[in-house]
Known about the structure:
This protein is 49% helix and 16% strand. The chain is α/β, with parallel strands linked by helices. Strand 1 (4-7), helix 1 and strand 2 form a beta-alpha-beta unit. 42% of the residues are buried. The mean pLDDT is 97. NADP nicotinamide-adenine-dinucleotide phosphate binds next to helix 1 and helix 6. Residues 9-15, 33-35, 54, 80-83, 103, 130, 132, 175, 177-178, 180-182, 185-186, 215, 218 line the site of NADP nicotinamide-adenine-dinucleotide phosphate.
Amino acid sequence: MSKVVLITGASSGMGRATVEFLAKKGFIVYAGTRDIKKFKNTKNTKIIPISLNITKQDSINHVADTIHKEQGKIDILINNAGFGVVSTVEDLNEEQMQQQFNVNVFGVLRVCKSIIPIMRKQNSGVIINISSFLGKIGLPLLTLYNSSKYAVEGITDSLRYELKDFNIRVHSIMPGFFDTKFARDNLVTNLQTFDKESPYAKMVMNLAPVIVEQINNGNDAIEVAEVILNIIEDEKFLARVTVGDKAKKFIPMKKELSDEDFERRVIEYYGL
Ligand SMILES: NC(=O)c1ccc[n+]([C@@H]2O[C@H](COP(=O)([O-])OP(=O)(O)OC[C@H]3O[C@@H](n4cnc5c(N)ncnc54)[C@H](OP(=O)(O)O)[C@@H]3O)[C@@H](O)[C@H]2O)c1
């Protein structure tokens, strides 16, 4: 019997690559997206696009009920949807702060809240949270995004204890920079921070183009899909894993060095 997957943010990037990869491997994949039209040319019958708004509990509950009715189970949940605000802290407005956490953090919690009871009753499940190497490492202008991904790491750590007795595994993937729609469509810049007259103009000019360039020349999303399959198949898989060059460079360094030495390396690397 095919395993049933729900993935959020499925229409592009890592989400899309994972949908297609897992469907080819024989999984039934519910592709949760705000825009199911993006799947109109999909021929693979194992891919089931489903309207999902992770900022609305009703929408998530409806998706959970639909999958449960159609398949009788949900084996794997992949919390992938996310975006990034690029702003100094002093320029952040209330709406940006709320929206970043509403999607990246509360979105993950809402989806977990609705899927966990199904997994708990079936006494099995795998939850994979797509966080970021920036869930362990801070960078200027990304404080809000960083803190949202640090929170995702915390969610993973806590849920692992909470769900272990119900045979539900929880993992996080910390990708480095990946060439997806992220920099093109889903990095939201704060206009004040990006103003030529901003006191942070020099930092913005030095760092922002480098980050965008590193994302657009980043690794291929298929690497994330392959790691997801490894996690699903290997019951002993580690709690968290890095994927992609930047994550593999910085995360081990962060573990080995003192906070201060690590900070010096990042300052040097990004010319901060
Ligand atoms: N690309 C990178 O360098 C990188 C590095 C580390 C971590 N990540 C993380 O990896 C995950 C996937 O990103 P990606 O690189 O594949 O980028 P992507 O191509 O931009 O895909 C992100 C998906 O998240 C959903 N999304 C974006 N903004 C949203 C919003 N405001 N509300 C609800 N859903 C929203 C969208 O799904 P729908 O439109 O289908 O609903 C979108 O397809 C994200 O959590 C991101 O933070 C990315």
